[in-house]
Amino acid sequence: MSATPIELPLQLRSLAVDLAHAGAELAREMQRGGIDVADTKTSVVDVVTEADKAVEELLRSQIAAARPDDAILGEEGDDKPGTSGVRWVLDPIDGTVNYLYGLPDCAVSVAAEVDGSLVAGAVVAIPTGQEYAAALGQGATRDGRPIGVRPTPPLGERLVLTGFGYQREVREHQAACVARLLPEVRDIRRMGSCALDLCHVADGSADAYVEAGPQPWDWSAGGLVLREAGGRFDLLDGSRTLGAGDLRNVVVGTPADGWDTFVEALGSAGFLA
Question: Alpha-carbon distance 128 to 106, whole Å?
């Protein structure tokens, strides 16, 4: 018997959590043995490790075993078509440079879409195993306990998280926008993992997140966690392509009641079209 519209997100969340923990465990094991850079992507500093590839292969194999008819979009592998209406969006290691250097903000991110809409997701921090999870309409949790965004303070008292790309032209633009935003807020942090940054807003550890250029595997699971924690998450129009860097999508997340003021500040800072 097929799952109901309420049951399916819960089932997919359960699988997403299992997948993310399995991937994080493999990444920890490989880190103990030493990390090798396997390749680079957009620039020489945008690295792919052997662990990125191994973790994604593990996630793909486990999805194929559990749900062979589902589609898969992964950061490191080819897109796999499917016939079920479910698509998995995988980031085997979000925060690869942190992982390479032994810094704590790196995670396995696993999300599931049904007919193009996000319905389930899990983000598991690699060093600690800390787990964020969400299912559509069922709220968000951290290590199994419900979480929610913090009350929104005035703009000048908001702690904002952000990130940067790996190409020179992209970084110059992002840095200029951040420099204009910084005087308007409490402070800005660059932690190194889009997925975890969105989860930090979801659990009240920060007030907002903005970054131009992340890809669906970076933000899908964390974005759903934030929405289910009472926040607002969206892709806004940046309308810029610099070199090979596509900055048209600006990822933004805040508590719902802080959205309008923050977006206005982003426009003034140059993030938006």
Answer: 10
Residues paired with 161 in a beta bridge:
189, 209
Please give the Cα distance from 90 to 73 (Å, whole number): 6
Instruction: Report residue 108 as tokens.
Output: 């396995």
Residue 25 corresponds to which tokens in the numbers above?
Answer: 């465990």
Give the whole-angstrom CA distance, residue 94 versus residue 269.
26
**In a structure prediction context, what are the per-residue pLDDT tens digits for the chain, which is 273 residues long?**
467 677 999 999 999 999 999 999 999 999 988 777 766 666 655 568 889 999 999 999 999 999 999 999 998 878 999 999 999 999 999 999 999 999 999 999 999 999 999 999 999 999 999 999 999 999 999 999 999 999 999 999 999 999 998 888 889 999 999 999 999 999 999 999 999 999 999 999 999 999 998 999 999 999 999 999 999 999 999 977 766 577 889 999 999 999 999 999 999 999 998
Q: 3-class SS at 146?
A: strand
3-state secondary structure of 92: strand
How many other CB atoms sit within 10 Å of the CB of residue 235?
Answer: 14
Q: In whole angstroms, how far apart are CA 130 and each of 30, 135, 142, 155, 226? A: 18, 17, 7, 29, 16
> What angle do the packed helices 7-32 and 50-66 form, to 10 degrees?
150
Please report, as a single letter, which amino acid is at residue 272.
Answer: L
Tell me the Ramachandran region of residue 116: left when phi exceeds 0, alpha when psi lies from -120 to 50, beta otherwise: left
Tokens of 82: 């499917």
